[in-house]
Amino acid sequence: MDSITTLLQNNERWASRLQAEDPEFFERMEEAQKPPFLWISCSDSRVPANQIVDLEPGQLFVHRNIANLVVHSDVNAQSVIQYAVDVLHVEHIIICGHYNCGGVKAALDNDTLGLLDHWLGNLRDIFEAHKEEISRINTEQGKVRRCCEINVKAQVFNVSQSPFVQKVWRDNRSLSIHGLIYDLHDGRLKDLGITINESISASDYLGK
Ligand code: CO
Protein backbone atom coordinates (compact mmCIF):
# COMPACT_ATOMS: atom_id res chain seq x y z
CA MET A 1 0.00 0.00 0.00
CA ASP A 2 2.61 2.54 -0.97
CA SER A 3 1.95 3.60 -4.53
CA ILE A 4 -0.62 5.63 -6.42
CA THR A 5 -1.23 2.59 -8.62
CA THR A 6 -2.49 0.72 -5.58
CA LEU A 7 -4.89 3.55 -4.79
CA LEU A 8 -6.24 3.61 -8.35
CA GLN A 9 -6.70 -0.15 -8.37
CA ASN A 10 -8.48 -0.01 -5.02
CA ASN A 11 -10.75 2.74 -6.33
CA GLU A 12 -11.69 0.73 -9.42
CA ARG A 13 -12.54 -2.30 -7.29
CA TRP A 14 -14.54 -0.20 -4.81
CA ALA A 15 -16.56 1.63 -7.49
CA SER A 16 -17.28 -1.60 -9.39
CA ARG A 17 -18.43 -3.34 -6.22
CA LEU A 18 -20.76 -0.48 -5.27
CA GLN A 19 -22.20 -0.34 -8.78
CA ALA A 20 -22.84 -4.08 -8.74
CA GLU A 21 -24.55 -3.91 -5.35
CA ASP A 22 -26.54 -0.74 -6.09
CA PRO A 23 -26.66 0.25 -9.80
CA GLU A 24 -28.19 3.70 -9.04
CA PHE A 25 -25.68 4.60 -6.32
CA PHE A 26 -23.54 7.01 -8.34
CA GLU A 27 -26.59 8.54 -10.07
CA ARG A 28 -27.86 9.48 -6.62
CA MET A 29 -24.45 10.92 -5.74
CA GLU A 30 -24.68 13.31 -8.69
CA GLU A 31 -27.70 14.98 -7.12
CA ALA A 32 -27.10 17.81 -4.63
CA GLN A 33 -25.66 16.62 -1.31
CA LYS A 34 -27.93 16.77 1.74
CA PRO A 35 -25.86 15.40 4.61
CA PRO A 36 -27.53 15.66 8.03
CA PHE A 37 -24.24 16.00 9.93
CA LEU A 38 -21.19 18.24 9.96
CA TRP A 39 -18.35 16.12 11.31
CA ILE A 40 -15.18 17.79 12.63
CA SER A 41 -12.37 15.45 13.60
CA CYS A 42 -8.60 14.96 13.71
CA SER A 43 -6.54 14.39 10.54
CA ASP A 44 -5.18 11.21 12.19
CA SER A 45 -5.26 8.34 9.66
CA ARG A 46 -6.63 5.99 12.30
CA VAL A 47 -9.84 7.98 12.69
CA PRO A 48 -11.56 7.83 9.27
CA ALA A 49 -14.85 9.77 9.50
CA ASN A 50 -17.37 7.74 7.50
CA GLN A 51 -15.91 4.35 8.39
CA ILE A 52 -16.11 4.59 12.17
CA VAL A 53 -19.81 5.52 12.06
CA ASP A 54 -20.48 3.12 9.17
CA LEU A 55 -22.01 5.74 6.86
CA GLU A 56 -21.98 5.84 3.08
CA PRO A 57 -20.86 8.81 0.98
CA GLY A 58 -23.41 11.64 1.19
CA GLN A 59 -24.09 11.39 4.93
CA LEU A 60 -21.27 13.43 6.49
CA PHE A 61 -19.97 16.89 5.62
CA VAL A 62 -16.42 16.66 6.93
CA HIS A 63 -13.73 19.02 8.19
CA ARG A 64 -10.50 17.59 9.59
CA ASN A 65 -7.35 19.15 10.97
CA ILE A 66 -4.68 18.35 13.53
CA ALA A 67 -6.38 17.83 16.91
CA ASN A 68 -9.89 18.72 15.66
CA LEU A 69 -9.67 22.41 16.48
CA VAL A 70 -12.23 25.10 15.68
CA VAL A 71 -10.31 28.34 15.92
CA HIS A 72 -12.37 31.54 15.68
CA SER A 73 -9.98 33.14 13.17
CA ASP A 74 -9.61 29.99 11.01
CA VAL A 75 -11.26 31.01 7.73
CA ASN A 76 -11.23 27.40 6.57
CA ALA A 77 -13.15 25.94 9.53
CA GLN A 78 -15.54 28.88 9.76
CA SER A 79 -16.30 28.61 6.02
CA VAL A 80 -17.13 24.94 6.46
CA ILE A 81 -19.42 25.78 9.40
CA GLN A 82 -21.12 28.56 7.44
CA TYR A 83 -21.75 26.34 4.44
CA ALA A 84 -23.00 23.50 6.64
CA VAL A 85 -25.56 25.60 8.51
CA ASP A 86 -26.53 28.18 5.85
CA VAL A 87 -26.65 26.01 2.73
CA LEU A 88 -26.81 22.37 3.81
CA HIS A 89 -28.95 23.16 6.88
CA VAL A 90 -27.35 20.45 9.00
CA GLU A 91 -28.99 20.12 12.41
CA HIS A 92 -26.06 18.37 14.08
CA ILE A 93 -22.41 19.39 14.31
CA ILE A 94 -20.13 16.77 15.81
CA ILE A 95 -16.72 17.41 17.28
CA CYS A 96 -15.07 14.00 17.31
CA GLY A 97 -11.82 13.86 19.25
CA HIS A 98 -9.80 10.74 19.89
CA TYR A 99 -7.70 9.37 22.72
CA ASN A 100 -3.95 9.16 22.18
CA CYS A 101 -4.08 12.22 19.89
CA GLY A 102 -0.60 13.15 18.69
CA GLY A 103 -1.56 16.84 18.56
CA VAL A 104 -2.68 16.79 22.18
CA LYS A 105 0.49 14.96 23.22
CA ALA A 106 2.68 17.44 21.33
CA ALA A 107 0.87 20.37 22.94
CA LEU A 108 1.59 18.90 26.38
CA ASP A 109 5.30 18.65 25.53
CA ASN A 110 7.65 21.58 25.32
CA ASP A 111 9.23 20.68 21.99
CA THR A 112 9.59 23.31 19.29
CA LEU A 113 7.87 22.18 16.10
CA GLY A 114 7.92 25.24 13.83
CA LEU A 115 4.68 26.32 12.20
CA LEU A 116 2.85 23.65 14.16
CA ASP A 117 3.55 25.56 17.36
CA HIS A 118 1.18 28.29 16.17
CA TRP A 119 -1.57 25.72 15.74
CA LEU A 120 -0.83 23.81 18.94
CA GLY A 121 -0.72 27.12 20.82
CA ASN A 122 -4.51 26.98 20.73
CA LEU A 123 -4.37 23.70 22.65
CA ARG A 124 -1.72 24.96 25.06
CA ASP A 125 -4.01 27.88 25.95
CA ILE A 126 -6.82 25.44 26.76
CA PHE A 127 -4.59 23.22 28.90
CA GLU A 128 -3.16 26.24 30.70
CA ALA A 129 -6.71 27.17 31.71
CA HIS A 130 -7.20 23.64 33.10
CA LYS A 131 -3.76 23.18 34.64
CA GLU A 132 -5.02 22.53 38.18
CA GLU A 133 -7.25 19.66 37.11
CA ILE A 134 -4.55 18.24 34.81
CA SER A 135 -1.83 18.45 37.49
CA ARG A 136 -3.94 16.28 39.82
CA ILE A 137 -3.77 13.35 37.37
CA ASN A 138 -0.96 10.97 38.33
CA THR A 139 -0.03 9.25 35.09
CA GLU A 140 1.16 10.68 31.80
CA GLN A 141 -1.34 8.50 29.95
CA GLY A 142 -4.14 9.71 32.20
CA LYS A 143 -3.18 13.34 31.56
CA VAL A 144 -3.23 12.85 27.77
CA ARG A 145 -6.57 11.05 27.97
CA ARG A 146 -8.19 13.80 30.02
CA CYS A 147 -6.69 16.51 27.82
CA CYS A 148 -8.22 14.86 24.75
CA GLU A 149 -11.63 15.17 26.45
CA ILE A 150 -10.99 18.74 27.65
CA ASN A 151 -10.09 19.67 24.07
CA VAL A 152 -13.35 18.25 22.66
CA LYS A 153 -15.32 20.21 25.24
CA ALA A 154 -13.49 23.43 24.38
CA GLN A 155 -14.09 22.90 20.65
CA VAL A 156 -17.81 22.22 21.16
CA PHE A 157 -17.95 25.59 22.91
CA ASN A 158 -15.92 27.25 20.14
CA VAL A 159 -18.39 25.99 17.52
CA SER A 160 -21.25 27.41 19.59
CA GLN A 161 -19.55 30.80 19.47
CA SER A 162 -19.35 30.87 15.67
CA PRO A 163 -21.40 33.82 14.38
CA PHE A 164 -23.03 31.49 11.84
CA VAL A 165 -24.15 29.10 14.57
CA GLN A 166 -25.36 31.98 16.75
CA LYS A 167 -27.47 33.22 13.82
CA VAL A 168 -29.13 29.82 13.43
CA TRP A 169 -30.24 29.95 17.06
CA ARG A 170 -31.38 33.58 16.74
CA ASP A 171 -33.56 32.44 13.82
CA ASN A 172 -35.05 29.74 16.08
CA ARG A 173 -33.73 26.91 13.94
CA SER A 174 -32.69 23.62 15.49
CA LEU A 175 -28.95 22.95 15.78
CA SER A 176 -27.09 20.74 18.25
CA ILE A 177 -23.35 20.59 18.77
CA HIS A 178 -22.14 17.28 20.15
CA GLY A 179 -18.82 16.20 21.67
CA LEU A 180 -17.75 12.61 20.94
CA ILE A 181 -14.46 10.86 21.52
CA TYR A 182 -13.09 7.83 19.71
CA ASP A 183 -11.00 5.17 21.40
CA LEU A 184 -8.28 3.77 19.11
CA HIS A 185 -7.98 0.84 21.50
CA ASP A 186 -11.39 -0.70 20.79
CA GLY A 187 -12.94 1.37 17.98
CA ARG A 188 -15.72 2.65 20.22
CA LEU A 189 -17.15 6.18 20.18
CA LYS A 190 -18.28 7.77 23.44
CA ASP A 191 -20.71 10.66 23.79
CA LEU A 192 -19.14 13.05 26.32
CA GLY A 193 -22.59 14.42 27.26
CA ILE A 194 -21.64 18.04 26.56
CA THR A 195 -24.16 18.84 23.80
CA ILE A 196 -25.02 22.50 23.28
CA ASN A 197 -28.43 23.28 21.74
CA GLU A 198 -28.68 27.02 22.31
CA SER A 199 -26.60 30.11 22.84
CA ILE A 200 -24.75 29.71 26.14
CA SER A 201 -22.26 31.89 27.97
CA ALA A 202 -18.70 30.74 28.60
CA SER A 203 -19.19 30.87 32.36
CA ASP A 204 -22.34 28.73 32.20
CA TYR A 205 -20.72 26.15 29.94
CA LEU A 206 -17.37 25.88 31.68
CA GLY A 207 -19.13 25.50 35.02
CA LYS A 208 -21.09 22.54 33.63
CO1 CO B 1 -5.30 13.42 16.72
Overall residue-averaged pLDDT value: 95
Approximate shape: globular
Strand order of the largest sheet: 2-1-3-4-5
Question: How many DSSP H or I helices?
Answer: 10
Low-confidence stretches: none
Indicate the structural class.
alpha/beta
- In terms of DSSP E residues, the strand content is 5-15%
* Radius of gyration, in angstroms, nearest whole number: 19 Å
**Terminal Cα span:** 46 Å
Helix content: 40-55%
Q: Encode the helix/strand succession as letters.
A: HHEHEHEHHHHHEEH
Which molecules are bound in this entry? cobalt (II) ion
Find the count of extended strands (DSSP E, 2+ residues).
5
Profile the largest sheet: 5 strands, mixed
Tell me what the structure shows.
It is a single chain. The protein is an alpha/beta fold and 208 residues long. It contains 10 helices and 5 strands, in the order ααβαβαβαααααββα. A 5-stranded mixed β-sheet has the order 2-1-3-4-5. Helix 5 (102-108) crosses helix 6 (115-129). The mean pLDDT is 95. Bound molecules: cobalt (II) ion. Cobalt (II) ion binds next to helix 5.
